Amino acid sequence: xxxxxxxxxxxxxxxxxxxxxxxxxxxxxxxxxxxxxxxxxxxxxxxxxxxxxxxxxxxxxxxxxxxxxxxxxxxxxxxxxxxxxxxxxxxxxxxxxxxxxxxxxxxxxxxxxxxxxxxxxxxxxxxxxxxxxxxxxxxxxxxxxxxxxxxxxxxxxxxxxxxxxxxxxxxxxxxxxxxxxxxxxxxxxxxxxxxxxxxxxxxxxxxxxxxxxxxxxxxxxxxxxxxxxxxxxxxxxxxx
Length: 240
Description:
Layout: E1 5-9, H1 13-24, E2 29-33, H2 36-46, E3 50-54, H3 62-70, E4 77-82, H4 87-94, E5 100-103, H5 108-126, H6 128-131, E6 135-139, E7 142-145, E8 150-153, E9 156-158, H7 162-171, E10 179-180, H8 181-188, H9 199-209, E11 218-221, E12 225-228
Parallel strand pairs: 1-2, 1-3, 3-4, 4-5
Antiparallel strand pairs: 6-7, 7-8, 8-9, 10-12, 11-12
């Protein structure tokens, strides 16, 4: 069994102590550091699943630390806190594919939702076999195999681009979840850290994919994002 670990980097030890007990309710082990350099050393030593860090820290600021980590690690879930709502920091944070950017004073409910989101993502990273045993029927003649990331129509494979596959893989994780434009962009750009966030690229990708699948298989939720909408036909599972 894998223990869920979190590294909490915060130079204000009083604030750190306030949230430490709260964090222990959601993860198995919490490691603590009080500056950016110590935090990076502990990241290398413990390889945590989640990192919670403040932007304004001595020796190495939080955004610079996150950028350093992201050069080699795209899986660790990073949550950043800050006392400042500066636009420049927000734009830099978007490019780091963060779970959440939280303004101080930290709201416990907001932190809770960020932790739950990170843990949900980790379930896919840590145990992909648990989330890749599904066959989804998009209509009676179109089936999406999530295990092999292949799409079939009338028993013939439909060729998908890399980003089309990534989009279908993401939204088929949870039929009840609405994936935001940022969720989708973050996933399709997972190996291109320099790519700037652009929701129009997501819209264009969905439009292209809908030419290969029934249009209603991906539903647009106005003002929020997209949701997967397959048809389950369990007794046809051995046709493909």
